[in-house]
Fold this sequence. Notes:
With about 375 residues, this protein is of the alpha+beta class. The protein has eight helices and 23 strands. It is globular, with a radius of gyration of 24 Å.
Amino acid sequence: MQNGIYLTKTDQDLKLLHIEEGEVLDVLIETGAPLVGTLYMGRVSAKDGPSFWVHIGLQKPALLQHPRQNYQVGQRVLVQLKRPPLIEKYLTKNAEVSDAISVSGDFLYYTPGKKGIHFSSQIRDKDWRSSTLEALNAVAENEEGIVLKGLSYGKNVKLITQDLHDVRLRWQQVQQDYQAAEKIGQVIHQGEAPWVSYVLDHKKEPIFTDNADLVVLLKQKNVSEKRLNFSLKPSWKVLLTESLDALLEEQVPLRGGGYLIVEEGHTLTAIDVNTTASGDTQLTLGVKLTSDNARFEFAQLALNESIRQLYLRKIGGIVVIDLPRLSNLKHQKALLKTAKSYEDSSLQVLGLTKSGLLEMTKRKDEMSLKQIFEGGER
Length: 378
C-alpha cells in the first residue's frame, strides 16, 4: 500500500487508517457517538463538590469539572462536550463537558471570554508569529481569545482575519440559538468529526477513499484535490481490511524474530513477550538471545512495540508487560527509562513488580478496537 491516509465508510461506521512504509501509524473508528466539541443546551442537575452534573440529553448526566462560575441546580448552561460517554459491559463513564467554549474555524480556535492570542506549538517561525500577532491585535476585540492552528502557518493574514470574522458570526449565531433553545440536550452547534481534524492536521499526506461524499466534504474543507485519490472499487480495500484485522489479533510478530501475545481483558491487559517460535509454521518467530546485550536489545524492541500496540488498539486501564529478565542493573534502569519516555497525560509507568512485570496505566477515554468490533462486522 502507498503511504497515506485511507478512508472508507459504511452505514455503521467510518474507518481511517494512516499507513507509512507498510505499517499502521494510526487508526480511527467512528461509530456515530456524540462528537467532541459539540455545544449543548444543558441543565445543572446536581452539585458535586466544586464540580457539577449537567443533563445534556444523554442517558446519564455529564460531569462539568473546573466550572468558570458557580451554578444553581436547575440552571440552564451552554456546555461543550470534552469526552463522550464510555459504555462497556463492565464499565460506564459519564460524558465530560466544559463551560469554557471553543469554536473552531478553518485556521483558528475562537475562545470567547478568554482574552489573548496564542499559536499552535507547531508554528515556530518567530517572524511569521510576530507579524501575524501584530495584524490580529489590530482587529481583536475585548474578551475574546484566539488560538492559531498549525494549518494557519504561511497563510495570508487576510485569510486568517476573514476566518476570525466568520467564526465571530458563528459564535453570535450560537448565542442566538442557545437563547432560543427550549429542549434540554438540544444541539446548538455540531462538533467536527475527529477524522476530519486528523486529515486537516496531516496536511501533506495523500488521501485514498472509496466514498464520494467524503471527497465532497474534504473539498469543502479546502483540502487540495492533488491529495485526493478516489476509486469506487479500490485495490487497497482488501489490504486495508487485513491491516485492521492484524490489530485485532492477539499475536504480534516482532522484527528479527519473537512475538507478543496481547491479551486484552476487562480488568487489565497482559502482554507476554516470547522469544521462541510459535506453533504457526507460516511465521518465523524464533529468536536466540545469546548474551545480556542481546536480551536488552530484544526487550527494548518488545517494549516499543508493546506501547505502540496499546495506542493503535486504543487499549486503556491497567497494563502489565512480561519482558525478558535482565540481570544487568544498568540494562534494567535503561529499560525503565525507555518506558518512562512514553509517559504523557494518558500513560503512567508504575515500575517493575516484585515478579519482574512492567506495570503501567493508560487512561481510557474511548472503546478499544476489540470492544468496537466484538460481535460485529469488521
